[in-house]
Amino acid sequence: MKKLCLFIIALITVSTSFAALPPIDSLKQTQLSSTEDRIAMLKSQVDSTQNDSVKAFLYAEIAVQYLKYDTIANKKIKLKYQNDALDYSYKALHLFSRYDDTVGMRNCFDNLAMVYHSKKVYPQAKWFILQSNTFSRAINDVPNVMKSLIKLAAIKMDIKDYSLAMGDLNEALKLSVANQDPRTESAVQLNFALLYNRMKNFKKGTIAMDRHNFIDDSLNKAELAIAARNAAADSADVKKKVPAKMVRKTDRTASSKRIASL
Prior knowledge:
mainly alpha; TPR-like_helical_dom_sf; 11 helices; Serine Threonine Protein Phosphatase 5, Tetratricopeptide repeat; signal
């Protein structure tokens, strides 16, 4: 009987805790409203300026907001967001190209490749990510060279061009190791796992996934160790900043309390 009562109490507690949480649909609606507010504000800024260089950045930021379409469940709204992301990325690209803003143009290429890949329009997705890769190489932006190679490999995997995808990942892996970038190396290993599994080479897929997990685990442990050291250092700094008189006064107060209690 006692166990039954405890079970009922636990069940009520869990039910109450879940009831206290806002519904997932409500959270998504709140996020969507926040995004819509941000877009409206940016569009009003576009209308209030005649400076094309400023408009380029505003268009790019509007595109970024529309790129949040993955959080939208409604297919009609999601499609609208995708199309608007394309529209504003093209507007930004047009203005960035006028001022020969290489970084701005490359970011637009990345955005366009992302949307076209999501829409499974592979020729355009491939073309734009190749432009991004070319621009990144031109300015020796190694992190974005690696990022574009991984994206390019993902697109080639989807069109079953596995041998070329392997070449892209091999180059990204060499760059990540040479530049001591374990985060990117981990991402490359994850994509190797996906590629090998699609090629039905499950043994190599498992090896790549194990390597990905090992790198991520090592990075997480290193971050925890750094956080612990920083916390210990902050604690030591706080103790150093406490005035000596205050410490002695606290000690005397504690001693008097002990005597009084005796």
